Amino acid sequence: MQDEGVIVIGGGVGGLVSAALLAARGRDVTLLEAQPGPGGKLRAVTVEGTAIDAGPTVFTMRDVFHDIFADCGSALEDHLTLRPATVLARHAWGPRPDADRLDLFADPALSEAAIGDFAGAAEARGYRAFRAEARRLFEALDRPFLRSPKADPITLGWRMGAGGLPDYLNLRAYVSMSRALSGYFADARLRQLFGRYATYSGSSPFACPATLMLIAHVEARGVWLIDGGMHRLAQALATLGRSNGVRFRYGTPVREILVERGRAAGVVLADGERLDAGAVICNADPAAIGAGAFGASVRCAVTPTPAHRRSLSALVWTARARASGFPLSRHNVIFSDDYRAEFDALAAGRLAQAPSVYLCAQDRDATDDPPAPPGPERLQIIVNAPANGDGAPLSSAEIDRCTQAMLHSVSRAGLSLDLGDSAKLTTPSDFAAMFPSTGGALYGPASHGWAASFRRQGSRTAIPGLYCASGSTHPGAGVPMAALSARLAVACLLADCRRWDRASTSWFSRTAMPGGISTRAAMTAPTA
């Protein structure tokens, strides 16, 4: 298997990183992507001739990408210009925008002081304790879980070892994030703010385990701005792969993953062309495999994700808009009055009547007083939505109601938006079309309940030679997690190749006839 090529299906972050790492290790790699270019969810939309990030907007865990570029013989800084954010996000609650506005800073001392000014000294002390707990959870799980192959609870405990036993016994898996936050913050606004970190994995703070508080520490470790936008990261990863010999074929959808003699053997493209390979890495949501989107022969490779376990989808507006009345920073969140009602509606498959709104002002710096650009500015606006995009699409009347609800929500914090005539809206139906078999879910399965992380699809599938790498697989959702999933998939593939090579050599040695290896041996070597 050493000389056989690898096919990577999908040019999202997981596929791009997988391809680059394998090529850097001397593998023959072909990446197939149905869209005209790389990125997957890390995409841009062109509005009035200007590219606007329409996917992830927050770049964290820079060290993950530093190591990937280094392992591929390059440097992250040679491809991208990164600037640290001083303000992580600006948060607001209506209808008193001046009194109910709070920034979180890269400097935790500034955040603590801001929280003290906003809600009092007791809440500042609560933030200090929360921050310590988020850090403890992250450091306990970083190596044994996030950067290691999928584990069950017993294996995770073994990896953490005797020294990690106190942390293992206190991973906060059996209490919801919402309930745990009540132990740190009496102020409902702060519980809402820090509960929002659950949505980074497309989940509800009322249903996900408090373990996910670690996401707050991931962000506190540093947020970076990429000059030109987040979609430049996808372009940089594609360039990195190409420099190591990856062949890219865009506009090339895959119809079927081939299985021969019990293992993945290549793919058939939508136009009928067959491509053979020794292994296949699938950068699609595993739900697509389980639903038969890549053929009946691989449906058994993964455990299907029931619709009720899907993560959130979204309504995403991208616009060249005029904003006034509220001092936007780069990242902004305007919260609803009733967070519980918002998530109850989403759980019931409905859009919230009064949603919380995230706005990324892409022409502004992440500082406490960034100047407003002259004229229209690039905005991405997100409202959470249920992942039911495989049902009836929103009607034009429903879309208009959604837009008006979003505009009303931001107006309560004093923000006036003129989206103009060229704004583009991406709905759960649109996401379902882009990412088949997901209903538009953007984060894979939701992280609800203590066992959710252990149910997530791992790198290996039930079919030898077929691997998964994406933000919908282990270790979790988000850009750095997708990159880590790729690193794990590559490690599993290479380990399996070595195991296959050893097994083949041993088997051939045992069955060799005088004068050489028999024809039967060459035809019937085991497939591991």
Would you mind describing this structure in some detail?
35% of the residues lie in helices and 19% in strands. It has helices spanning 13-24, 62-71, 108-119, 121-146, 153-160, 165-168, 177-182, 188-195, 214-220, 231-243, 286-290, 339-347, 396-411, 428-434, 452-455, 479-511, 519-523, and strands spanning 6-9, 29-33, 44-47, 50-53, 82-84, 87-93, 101-105, 224-226, 247-250, 254-260, 263-269, 274-276, 279-282, 313-324, 331-335, 357-361, 377-385, 416-418, 424-426, 466-468. The strands form five sheets. Strands 6, 7, 14, 15, 16, 17, 18 and 19 form an eight-stranded mixed beta sheet that branches. A hairpin with a 4-residue loop joins strand 11 and strand 12 (274-276). Helix 1 runs parallel beside helix 10 (231-243), helix 2 (62-71) runs parallel beside helix 16 (479-511) and helix 4 packs across helix 9. The longest helix has 33 residues, at 479-511.
Structural topology:
Elements: E1 6-9, H1 13-24, E2 29-33, E3 44-47, E4 50-53, H2 62-71, E5 82-84, E6 87-93, E7 101-105, H3 108-119, H4 121-146, H5 153-160, H6 165-168, H7 177-182, H8 188-195, H9 214-220, E8 224-226, H10 231-243, E9 247-250, E10 254-260, E11 263-269, E12 274-276, E13 279-282, H11 286-290, E14 313-324, E15 331-335, H12 339-347, E16 357-361, E17 377-385, H13 396-411, E18 416-418, E19 424-426, H14 428-434, H15 452-455, E20 466-468, H16 479-511, H17 519-523
Parallel strand pairs: 1-2, 1-13, 2-9, 6-15, 13-20
Antiparallel strand pairs: 3-4, 5-8, 6-7, 10-11, 11-12, 14-17, 14-18, 14-19, 15-16, 16-17
Helix pairs in contact: 1-10, 1-16, 2-16, 3-4, 4-9
